[in-house]
Structure formats: C-alpha cells, structure tokens
Fold this sequence. Notes:
Elements: H1 2-18, H2 22-25, H3 29-35, H4 69-99, E1 115-118, E2 121-124, H5 125-128, E3 129-135, E4 138-143, H6 149-158, E5 165-167, E6 172-175, H7 181-218, H8 224-257
Antiparallel strand pairs: 1-2, 3-4, 4-6, 5-6
Helix pairs in contact: 4-7, 4-8, 7-8
Amino acid sequence: MSLLMSATTHILSSNFHNSLPLSGASSLRSFTSSSHYVTLKLPTTSTFTPLLSTSFQLRTTPFVRAATIDEIEAEKATIEKDVKNRMEKAIENVRSNFNSIRTGRSNPSMLDKIEVEYYGSPVSLKSIAQISTPDASSLLVQPYDKSSLKAIEKAIVSSDVGMTPNNDGEVIRLSIPQLTSDRRKELSKIVSKQTEEGKVALRNIRRDALKAYEKLEKEKKLSEDNVKDLSSDLQKLTDEYIKKVDTIYKQKEKELLTV
C-alpha cells in the first residue's frame, strides 16, 4: 500500500510540475523535487471522528421517585393530627387563663399561675402544696413542706390574684372578697381580650396547615382539587374550635356578672 501511494504521489507531482509555465517551474523546483519522495502512510487503525461538537453535552433528566399513595396519606394524616393537637392546646390555654381570673366563688385554679421560689428555683404553687375550697368564699393552701410557708405567702402577695393570705404556721387561708361592679366589668374586658387571642391562635394554626397542603401541591403530591377539599375541611374544624372558645367565654362571663 505504501509503495502504491508513493508511486501515485510521484506521478501526480510530475504532472503538476509539467503543467506549470516555464517561468514558474524554477521557483517550484525545490517543492516538486521534494514532493517526489513524499510517502503517505495510512494509520493501521481507523480513528472515529465524532459528528457532534466536543462542546456539546447530552442533557439528561434526573430520575425522581414519585411518592406512593400511602406516603401521601401519611403526610396528610400527620398534618391533621398536628392541627387537632395544637387546637386542643389553644383551647386549654384559654380555659387556663379564664380559671386564673377570680370570680365571686372560690376555685383552686385561681392560684394556677402562681410560682414560688423554692430552694432557689421557681415552681408552681400546686406542685408543692394542696389547694382546696372549704367553702364558696375561701381557699386553703396546705404545703407539703411547712418550711415553704413563708415563700408561698410571699408569692401570693406578689401576684395579681387580689387576695391577702393568712398564715397560721400550718396552712394559709385566703378569703375571696366580693367583686365590685367596676371590677367585674374590668375583668370582663380582660376575658374578652383573652377570647380573641384564643381565636387568633386557632386561625394561625389553620394558616400553617394550609401552607403545608400548598407545599404538597407544589410537590405534585396533591392536586388543586385535593387542596380545596382539605381547606374546606380545615375551615370546618377551625369553626368548631372557635365555637368552643365562645362557649367557654360565655360561661366565664356569666360567672363574672353573677353577684
């Protein structure tokens, strides 16, 4: 093969030289003389030249595993459970706030908010003493540790319960004074404000759940219709808990206004 190509090259270069005018022959003599001995060597193995540019890169779509129906249902159930738990806590918080507001009748929960400095740490009064109601107009505080009597007395005086403690060295007695008309109206406003705060807390819980559903929709785990149905159910649940707050409020307001 090499000999054949060499001979062919020699013939072509001779023809090329002979076809030139005489004036140009001498100027190309050195080129033609050297070209007589050019040997073309073909590679022993073929080389593949890619048709695509080396700068071209194939673009592939990454594989994404779709969530199963069970996984989607589990996420929905988790959101619903969280909503109900938080709403229940919101109701309990409203009830606890109402109970700490004294009315004309004695109730151990009136002292729920009181904390006592006990051995250098603040603790709730009901955790270190037994609180009872001997009658409709008094409270009895009996500490488990008598050495804490003075600390309990100090905590009650510093609180906003509006009662003066009577410490006899064994127990503390609290007499509940009758509320004046002005004081009842003032407490009624406080209760009304706490009621509204409870409703706001419920609406915030609803808002968080809606965001969670919308996130599932963006992830293509829920359809737009699914989200609409869930939002409707969520609104109904929120309305139910708001009614519970209203019921608790009416009961407390009745207590406050009853002489």
